[in-house]
Amino acid sequence: xxxxxxxxxxxxxxxxxxxxxxxxxxxxxxxxxxxxxxxxxxxxxxxxxxxxxxxxxxxxxxxxxxxxxxxxxxxxxxxxxxxxxxxxxxxxxxxxxxxxxxxxxxxxxxxxxxxxxxxxxxxxxxxxxxxxxxxxxxxxxxxxxxxxxxxxxxxxxxxxxxxxxxxxxxxxxxxxxxxxxxxxxxxxxxxxxxxxxx
Length: 198
Description:
This protein is mainly α and 198 residues long. It has two domains: 1-94, Serine Threonine Protein Phosphatase 5, Tetratricopeptide repeat, CATH 1.25.40; 105-198, no CATH class. It has ten helices and no strands. Helix 4 packs antiparallel against helix 5 (81-94). The longest helix has 28 residues, at 127-154. Residues 14-19 have low confidence and may be disordered. Residues 1-20 form the signal peptide. Keywords: Signal, TPR repeat.
């Protein structure tokens, strides 16, 4: 019995170690992922990216951050907002001045605010429901605003600026609206527009 258990454990150990990928193999997967993405093979890139996720910690920091942005973008374009946000937030944590991810997060968070806005308009006759939805809308807007403002500070866009101003107006936050220009000026000092994966 002991010999049989030892043989089974040896087989299991051999199987597990043969599946472990080396750093070079993971980097090659990352290169294949990027190639598919750059060639417009989005389905293939998404599959390769999902296969890479369990071993992404074997990539160097810059490559891992670049991967997180790229896989987040693929998830966003595939309509998987929750997964996109998960990976964009990893990029935001590592490179908070990368305004491209700030814009993506801001607009993804705006989806919740937009949904709540529609519900708010429909609940005007129900005071309690309207108050509850107003609180939720304000929280969603406040979640989107810092990302939208960083994006606007680094890459000014009339639509984004209009959206920011309308959020402050909808929340009744005159102080936030009044200090917007000074915040944008301060935020514009540290902008990253490209991620280096080397």
